[in-house]
Specification:
Layout (H helix, E strand, L loop, with lengths): L19 E2 L6 H19 L4 E8 L3 E8 L2 H5 L4 H14 L2 E8 L7 H13 L4 H14 L4 E8 L8 E8 L8 E11 L5 E12 L3
Parallel strand pairs: 1-2, 3-4
Antiparallel strand pairs: 2-3, 5-6, 5-8, 7-8
Length: 209
Amino acid sequence: MGQKTHPIGFRIGISKDWKSRWYAEDKYKDHALEDLKIRKLIQKKVSAAGIARIEIERSLTELSIKLFVAKPGIAIGRGGKSVEELKKALSQLTGLKVRLDIEEVKKPQLSAKLVAEGIASQIERRFNPRRVISSTAKRVMEAGAEGVKIIVAGRLGGTNIARTDKVVRGSVPLQTLRADIDFARETAHAGAKGSIGVKVWIYKGEITL
C-alpha cells in the first residue's frame, strides 16, 4: 500500500507557513468554516485573475486577506471597482472590517495551482492529455524550476478503462524537508468521459532553515 502525505502539510512549521493564521479558543470550527466560505467567495468573484494563493489573518475586529494572482489588473478592476466590490462582499460575509492586499505572481509557471488549473482547462477543451502535460512540464522547467512532476488520471482520451499518465522532469525530492515543493490538485470535468484528476509538484530548490 502506498502511504503518501501531503507535500505542503508535511513541511508546515518547517519550510512552509499556514495559509490561515489566527487563534481561537472556542470558535475554531466557526472560523475554519468561515475561512472556507471566504476562499470560495474570492474564487467565484476573481477566478479570472488566476489565483495562486490566498492568505488569511484575523484580529478581533479586522480581517486581513492577501491575494497572490497572475493578473492583478483583473482582480483590481477599472478604477479599483472589482476590489472594492470584493471587500464589501467579504465584510458582509464576516461582519468584520476587511483589509485586502493584491500581489502579482511574477512567474505563474512556478505556481502549482495555476499550472494544474491550466492543465485541467486544456483537458476540458479536449486537448491530448499526454501532450498537454509534456509541454507544460517543459515550460515549468524553462521558467526556472529544478524539477516538476505531473500526473493525470482518469478516462484519458475517452478510453473505457481509467489509466494514469505521468511526466517527470528534473528532481522532485519529496522526503527532504528543506525542499521548496509547491503542490496542487485539480479536477478536469470532461463531460461524458467523466472526471480527470490532475496533480502537480514543482520543486524550486532548497530553503535555508
